[in-house]
Amino acid sequence: MRFDLFRVVVLSMMCFVFGTSGFAQGDAERRAAKLGLGMNLSYLDNFWKGTKEKHFSDFAKPEEAAKRQKMLADIAKAGFKTVRIPICFSAWMELKRPYEWDNPDALKMADSFIKWALDDGLNVVIDLHHPEFDRSVPEADNPERIVNLWVRIAERYKNTDPERVFFELRNEPHNITAEAWRWQAEQIIKNVREIAPKHTLIVGFHEWNGRKEMIESKPFDDPNIIYTFHYYAPFVFTHQGAGWAGDSMKDLRDIAFPYSADRKIKVPQSAKGTWTENQINDYKRDSDPKYMYAELKAAKDWSLKNKVPIFLGEFGSFSQYASMEDRCRHADTVYSALGKLDIPSAWWEWDGGFNMFDKGTDQISPCMRKAIDSYFAK
User: Fold this and answer.
1) Over the stretch 174-212, which tens digit does the pLDDT of each residue have?
2) Closest Cα partner for 293 from 211, 367, 203, 209?
3) How far apart are CA 164 and CA 98, in angstroms?
């Protein structure tokens, strides 16, 4: 009896000393494992459809948002377990103190997306997208404002199920130093934790949630975090013809995946002498599936070394100029690597320019379906 009592006392002391951090870290790992195959559903991030004079607060329309209810159901029916919902909350909050919501009715659309997704059995990543807009509104990117933005978001969604709802602090931080982003993230984490102590946070790093930048960084002190990165390699394939990615990308066409000597890449005049031409020169190496696997494995190795879970928040390919066959080969390369490495992910995107559909339909292409299934062929 005495021995049993002693053992209970010791175990209780261990739980007291180690329990909080150990339990929280266990939450992050366990919840990350349940994310599985995910999908991004865009629309509530499309700030550019609004009026700049109103700091884009009028960009989202209820009738358009309502169309996404069926899309969320279709995402679940297609076998995806998680939906990442990019939301430009920044458009709906005052630019200056006291940082109140100045378009509270618009928030109802975000509420609906989250409810619909949960009703369909999906996990939900609430992703703060484009808080800086296009950087034409100087007040938007104020770190104090972004911290207060998360205070408002956390207060609104603190009562959601922490087993199924995740808070992603900021999509693709850029034009910011590693040190400045780390400081900002630490302030957000501190403030969110006071409001929503049990929710798992998803946090990336500078340079557009860069994979390399994640590997070169240290985890934060908070143990209940899943770390995220984006992977659009090789960029000249996944973003060929995407003018928003830079003038040097806009004229790229018909790039094979992987590299093919029979389909030599034509370097357009707009790409000559630019970083894009350098990427074209490296394309044979960069599009090699073994090379891509090694890049993703390096992310997994960082995860194992630091004993933290990771999540690939975005990957995919622009559909306008790449053939479906090439896109499917690219998707198969990434999905099969993710499956072997046991990395949960979210494809970008369901119904926009990066969609998986056969042209003119809302049905996933058979070869895309095969690529998705390669995730399970471990």
Assistant:
1) 999 999 999 999 999 999 999 999 999 999 999 999 999
2) 211
3) 31
Largest CA distance in the chain: 84
Structural domains in the chain, sorted by start: 27-376 (3.20.20.80)
Flag whether the pTM goes above 0.90.
yes
Q: What is the mean pLDDT of the chain?
A: 94
If we measure between CA atoms, which residue out of 313, 170, 327 comes closest to residue 239? 327
Judge whether 139 and 177 are in contact, CB under 8 Å.
Answer: no
Position 148 scores a pLDDT of 98
pLDDT digits (tens, 9 = 90+) for 279-326: 999 999 999 999 999 999 999 999 999 999 999 999 999 999 999 999
pLDDT tens for each residue of 2-48:
434 444 333 444 444 333 333 344 999 999 999 999 999 999 999 99
- Would the pLDDT of 266 be above 70? yes
> Which token pair is 331?
């998707």
- Tokens matching residue 150: 């998360």
Q: Which residue in 122, 45, 51 sits closest to 80, CA to CA?
A: 122
Bond before 366 cis per omega within 30 degrees: no
H, E, C per residue of the chain: CHHHHHHHHHHHHHHHHHHHHHHHHHHHHHHHHHHCEEEECCCCCCHHHCCHHHCCCCCCCHHHHHCHHHHHHHHHHCCCCEEEEEECHHHHECCCCCCCECCHHHHHHHHHHHHHHHHCCCEEEEEECCCCCCCCCHHHHCHHHHHHHHHHHHHHHCCCCCCCEEEECCCCCCCCCHHHHHHHHHHHHHHHHHHCCCCCEEECCHHHHCHHHHHCCCCCCCCCEEEEEECCCCHHHHCCCCHHHCCCCCCCCCCCCCCCCCCCCCCCHHHCCCHHHHHHHCHHHHCCHHHHHHHHHHHHHHHHHHCCCEEEEECCCCCCCCCHHHHHHHHHHHHHHHHHHCCCEEECCCCCCCCCECCCCCCECHHHHHHHHHHHCC
Cα distances from 215 to residues 182, 315, 371, in angstroms, run: 14, 18, 27
